[in-house]
Amino acid sequence: MTSSRSVLFFTITLTLAVAVSLSLAGCETLKTSKPILPLKEYERMIAGRLDANYVGTATCLAACHYHDKIKRDFDASTMGSQLSKKSGLPNVDCESCHGPGSLAVQDLTPEKVEEDAKAGKLTACDYKTLIDIRNLPAQAQSLICLKCHTGNATFNLHNWNASSHAVSDVSCSDCHKVHVGPDLKVKPRDIGRMCERCHQDVQASFALPSHHPLPENRVFCNDCHDAHGALGNHMLKRGTVKETCIFCHAEKSGPFVFEHAETMEDCGTCHSPHGSVNTRLLNVQVPFLCLQCHAGHRTSAKASAEAKGAFYTRCTDCHSQIHGSDLPSAAGRRRFTQ
Questions:
Q1: In terms of residue numbers, what domain contains 105?
Q2: Helix (DSSP H) and strand (DSSP E) numbers for the chain
Q3: Higher pLDDT residue, 185 or 198?
């Protein structure tokens, strides 16, 4: 009997040990870093054909004139002017983004260029041998930009990979157009329209009667949010909602002797940040906003018994210093009346 129990105990112990070992092995497998694609395919995706060579922008443009206008526009851009040899910055050119171009121009000859010119057309290179940027996953598109931009002084890009935009398949090129014009940064007055392409619910909020003056171009999305990622929620530039709000609304920051506790934690407790149907961006109109936390009371301590049910419409008619006050009320209590 004792021998049978020993065998059973040994069997159970061995089974548990094997199960734990397999479980730990599975955890180690999950923690192991694996490429999304085979390594060579991934390298080819962001670096171009591995069997091609870098020949330089001048060589590419000398072979044909198809990209002359694009090159002139790029040279006039902020990036293009900074990448000149006199800038002292790393040698970055067309092949840094599009990949090595030797295969793209190898079949171009002066005779073919001349023949195309007589036919009234520009000779194009074999662009299919270059990186197919438009059809890359958004993260790979951004990685092409980040090859350079994470190595310079743009520290806000260090948060990009964990940002809401990155995990939502938004790439750098969705907002920045390298070949469009001289300024690659989005102009403040254009930021709202650009963001609204995706954030249509927020656009609707700014159309409500009470809203932050973004449609009037008095504030902009990037006054509060960092599009490249931030450590706080909602990609806020500052650590908390309150820190973001008091950057403009400093008079509400305190500290006060008598503090309204809820407003000291999160302005969103009472206010909608983008827009509201209620005055002052309130989530709910007064007095119903206040009654969510505070019980109703008579408007006067001397009111008659018949006046107990008297209806009052605005708590702030009496409690005017609702965010906080340094003075007690007339009755000597913290009622935010003065």
A1: 33-185
A2: 16, 4
A3: 198
